[in-house]
Amino acid sequence: MKFTGVVVGGLLHALSVAAHHGDEHEHAQEILVSGPTVGTDLTWLEKYGPQSDMVFTGPLSFSHLEYARCLEDASKDFDIAILGMPFDTAVTYRPGTRFGPTGIRTGSRRQHAARAYTLSWGLDPYTQGTKVIDCGDVPLNPFDNAVALDQMEVAYSTLLKRDVARNSTEGVGEVRAFAKDKKEHPKIITLGGDHTIVLPILRSLNKVYGPISVIHFDAHLDTWSPGEISPSPQARITHGSFFYIAREEGLMSNTSIHAGIRCKMLGDSDITNDESVGFKVISTDDLDDIGISEVIRRIRKRIGNSPVYLSLDIDVIDPGLAPATGTPEAGGWTTREVKRIIRGLAGLNFVGADIVEVAPAYDHADVTSIAAADIVHDFLSMMMSAEPPKPRDDRKPWVDEL
């Protein structure tokens, strides 16, 4: 069967509106049934309907969400903001994560707010009465890290001060009780950037909540001491020392936890130092020994009822599944295992989250960017769930018909 260019265009449009605009679907179907007429004077709108963006077209925002330059437009309100921090000048190995926010957005193009229900969560995060928008990227100075870190802190604090959009007085994951002003503040999901971006984020969150706990998914500890001798105060701050600096500044409580650690170390002294920063370790191998359920239980027990920030380095996933990162380590968790653990954390008092260290230049077929974008979708569902989703068979048991 042969199709003319006009017919193919009509078919593609019908597929687009069927996926994203239910009200326009009937209009597109009528056109396909009757067949397009070539050579008429009808306008596009009259003949084919609205100019709908397809999953692979249109402006680049996370999951085709509303996009706004929130840092300059104070009229934009939201409950959860997606914010990019394109920073990679504090890495110790491969650079390239300044392209991470764009890469993650590219990986999200097949996702859409009109088609976001998943069997894993049993919900659609965009139909929970919570407004989510993409606030773009922070325009960071690529030549001066001190300026860039200040820009990140100012940007994050600017959005954190905004009023929430939700009209209800209560929300899922209620954290206003932990805020110094006892008000509800927006939550921000940050797209990195190298892991150093967490230091200015913790500085911003500290102004609102005081010291908080951190759940840290990573192959590396990131708590290493920069040493007593350093070329400059700024040189102390890297993507491997930022948690140590955060502890010096009193930004974290003593109830934080790592998940997925498998890096090489100097010895037990690194673990002793790590504990002094306020962390306990769940290693990559622990998942094999104790299982996913016990990993989840230990994380939840460690965090308790405290306000908590989740930071996920994409290198927690095995480089065979997520190769696009600056410091890959063999033997990591699978994407599915990480996603399963995240589901088990729903209901904790999250004040924000990030996904960092995605460096698209090292990717193949966007596999890392796609995984990162899907994890951000999990973050949204996690923040909107009062408790972990039950297993599917508990929600709706199979019936043995024999």
UniProtKB/TrEMBL annotation:
<protein>
    <submittedName>
        <fullName>Arginase/deacetylase</fullName>
    </submittedName>
</protein>
